[in-house]
Amino acid sequence: MSHFMRAPIALLLAGLIIASSGTASRAADAAKIALVIGNAKYPDNEFVLNDAANDAQDIADELSRDGFVVDRQINLTGDAMRQTLDRFYARINQGAVALIFFDGFGIQSNRQSYLLPVDAQIWAEPDVSRDGFSLDSILAEMNARGAAIKIALIDASRRNPFERRFRRYSAGLAPAIAPSNSLLIYSAALGAVVASGQTDHSLFVTELLREMRAPNVSAEQALTNTKNGVVGATNREQVPWLSSSLTTDFSFAGLVAQPPGNKGADRPPSKSEQQKPVCEVVQPDAAPSADDLARDPIIADLTHRIAANASDAISRYKRGQVYAIKRAYALAMQDFDAVIRLDPRDGEALNNRCWTRAATGDLQGALADCNLALQVDPGLSEALDSRGLVNLKLGRTAEAIKDYTDAIQRNPRSSSSLFGRGVATRKSGGDGAADIMQAKSMDPNIAKEFAGYGVTECVP
């Protein structure tokens, strides 16, 4: 996988860039500055995020009506995103209101949220900080440039293809460490993701636009209303995260004397709501055709590398992951077999082959692989999660619950382990609803993923 370097952009050049950036050139003395980014075309994703591009346009239009000088950008590469951010910082004057809207893929790493350009190459955790842009750092720079009010509207709580490549990840976004007088909202709760479908507009941005247009409403109240609107429309399945340290009155449509409060907006669900029974029958996505696989650019690139070097274990391992994610299990097995032949004690490859065998029904072979992976690396939570799936499919619910519980102790944000434990608990005669609901709030597609393994949450 190729890596690219980004040269820092000198502030001396920022003025020259601004002069050629359309509407951004009017920002020199503006009091309200906005950067709107809609990243829709990620080559690694199976479809274009049309809602990201459309929502970015709608947000840019609304902010312009509200008196912001807006720089709207679509489908930014890493270099372009760095240049765009440098332009944005250079336009911030002392005392300004500075706002960033980002719609696309985000990912958390080391308790920070990173916004991803369309050409991000994410295969391991260090790649996140290399190719992504830390929201904490963006807010800190806005503050350092003199912004009196910092606002971040982030629609990036999606389960993205980078997370699926490796089973060790924390879904969703992390809380931002924001400077004082900041206002932030994510489209989903911390650590949670929203189902990424092929839609023209997101529910979150639809609610956000409605509230931004409301007259005589503070910005903080508008975002609180946005959160409540999304919660109500999804029956609490999607709960945006809101953080405010505003000490200055501000509204999108105009200043208000005293922003109304809504202290009950963050009311926790009642015990009956938390224990609401759930049982959903879903159908897994169809496996891709040979033509679909042949057209995949990531598979094509890795295949080219393997053809040039048959001993390239890293490329074989990555291609096996991509095949497994796409449910091309036979091809995934061939790659994992090759990696393990090169290194019989590769715990990660053994875990992935265990997972693949479990999905295809080779349960005894899967159990042997998981056991060996845990002998090689006893702290490998992903192998505990995979073995939990094996035991669940074998009907050994007590063993499955123990494996999933041990995995959750190592990684409390694993939606797979939570869902698996909930299903195992239900199949053993218990409730399991709390685990299942929590897993779905973190990953709305988790039931479909398990359906692909032949596991449903419903007990006859």
From TrEMBL:
Keywords assigned: Signal, TPR repeat
Keyword Signal belongs to the record: yes
Residues of the signal peptide: 1-26
GO molecular function: cysteine-type endopeptidase activity
Pfam families assigned: Peptidase_C14, TPR_16
Region span, Disordered: 257-277
Feature: compositional bias, Basic and acidic residues: 264-274
Biological-process GO terms, alphabetical: proteolysis
Domain Caspase family p20: 30-102
TPR repeat coordinates: 313-346, 381-414
Matching PANTHER family: MUCOSA ASSOCIATED LYMPHOID TISSUE LYMPHOMA TRANSLOCATION PROTEIN 1/PARACASPASE (PTHR22576), MUCOSA-ASSOCIATED LYMPHOID TISSUE LYMPHOMA TRANSLOCATION PROTEIN 1 (PTHR22576:SF37)
Protein name, entry field: Caspase family protein
Native source species: Bradyrhizobium commune
